[in-house]
Amino acid sequence: MFLNWNPVLLGVVGAVVVIGVLIFVHELGHFVAAKSVGIAVLRFSFGLGPRTPIGIKIGETDYCLSWIPFGGFVKMAGLEEEGAAGSVEGGKVEADVPPERTFDAKPLWARIVVIIAGVTMNALFAFLIYALLAATYGTPVDDTTTVGSVDSTALPPGAAGLKTLRPGERIVRVNGDTVRSWGAMQQALLEAPGARITVEVAGRAAPIVLDLPHEESPARAKAAEALAPLQLPQIGEVLPGTPADSGGLQPRDLIVEAGGAPIPSWDSLVRVIQSSPGRPLPLVLDREGRRVALTLVPRPTPQPDPRTGATRTVGKIGAGPYIAMRRFGPVGALGLGLRETGQTAGLILFTLKGLLTGQVSARDVGGPILVGQMTGEVARLGLQYLLSFVALFSVNLAVLNLLPIPVLDGGHLVFLALEGLRGRPVSLQQRQRWTQIGMAVLVGIMALAVANDVLRVIH
């Protein structure tokens, strides 16, 4: 739907819109919760730092834009002078607020509700998007365990046995348990106890044996991601104004040859297209039993390399694979939305664990440039993919905000937990000291993310 936009412009606009919406949802949670328990909200801001002239005051609350176009905040009475955090939130707001309407004057349970309301709203927002997608578009039917390809270069030590898998072979059991879908097979690889994992393949007398200790979760994830299911090279969607559209491709066309080579799977078709940016690519396809010959010129498109992060130019034609979809009724869609939200949160926690243990490189941390690139990519694919990315990012924001770093919601929850255990609040001086440390940590993480982004662009 945005294929004719400049990729850089699309990435910038998309990132601003996505982050803006998610910030609004997050801060709206804090705002509604604070109002509901009687805390005076002095400012509701998009962006950080001093207030710009753009805004309006309604009642006691100043709704405005701030100068630093990153993040946002809800300034509550009693929290407006928390040292570094206070300056980031534009400094003190002059207001005559009754003492009983300040944050610290409220019961502990009320303050906890206000703090967790932001992440709750982000999780709820993602849940609703996933449920809407399930009801509107449906979800892919996952009923195959047949191997389409194996990226042998991505396999970690201990998983070399998977190199012997050939396209068309079917995985039937993992550690003796039958698997009937690709997702179930991947989950079995990730969750198998111990270090020894057996993968049984139909038609083979002996299983493939992997040596991947359970605590080495990132290695298991790499092994699972190195396998791709067999997917027919059949066209499902042709986007208007693209090489596929102008070249005459139609939905349900089955690609037989590309560039003179036989095409057994969708993965092999993608590889041929990506390796031919700006060059004529002859295709032979099966259309309702008839052989048809076409020539397309894949559009050169900059794209970050998933392994190195470096930008490279690949060919794209603007077509997607045919995927059988299953739609859900209201109850089923809500159930699937809940499951998708939980699985996404688990994946993010899985990645954070890898970062903390050193099993995932800190170079994989991305910043605003990477977010812009990813947003641009999914926006060009269509509304369904963009909404799915928004839901993923919303869960990511919720999980990261729960980290026990002062300034973040998780840090505030730590202060409140200590108050509950000690029977008295943490002093303002201690809160300010820890908040300054938290700000330094947060700035360091942001600097790392931006540096990684710059290095990806350079390389």
Task: Give the secondary structure arrangement, pairings included.
Layout: H1 7-36, E1 41-58, E2 61-76, H2 84-88, H3 108-136, E3 139-140, E4 147-150, E5 171-174, E6 177-178, H4 182-191, E7 196-201, E8 208-211, H5 217-225, E9 227-229, E10 235-238, H6 243-246, E11 254-258, E12 261-262, H7 266-274, E13 281-287, E14 290-296, E15 299-304, E16 311-316, E17 319-321, E18 325-326, H8 330-357, H9 368-381, H10 383-401, H11 409-422, H12 428-458
Antiparallel strand pairs: 1-2, 3-18, 4-9, 5-6, 5-7, 7-8, 10-17, 11-12, 11-13, 13-14, 15-16
Task: Kindly list the characteristics that best describe this protein.
Pdz3 Domain, alpha+beta, single chain, 459 residues, four-stranded antiparallel β-sheet, 18 strands
Explain what the structure shows.
- It is a single chain.
- This protein is α+β, with helices and mostly antiparallel strands and 459 residues long.
- Among the domains are: 106-140 and 328-418, no CATH class; 147-229, Pdz3 Domain; 235-323, PDZ domain (Pdz3 Domain, Roll), CATH 2.30.42.
- It has twelve helices and 18 strands.
- The protein has helices at 7-36, 84-88, 108-136, 182-191, 217-225, 243-246, 266-274, 330-357, 368-381, 383-401, 409-422, 428-458; strands spanning 41-58, 61-76, 139-140, 147-150, 171-174, 177-178, 196-201, 208-211, 227-229, 235-238, 254-258, 261-262, 281-287, 290-296, 299-304, 311-316, 319-321, 325-326.
- The protein has a four-stranded antiparallel sheet with strand order 6-5-7-8, with helices on one face. A four-stranded antiparallel sheet has the order 12-11-13-14.
- Strand 15 and strand 16 form a beta hairpin.
- Helix 1 packs across helix 9, helix 3 packs across helix 8 and helix 3 runs antiparallel to helix 10.
- The chain is globular, with a radius of gyration of 26 Å.
- The model has no long low-confidence stretch (mean pLDDT 84).
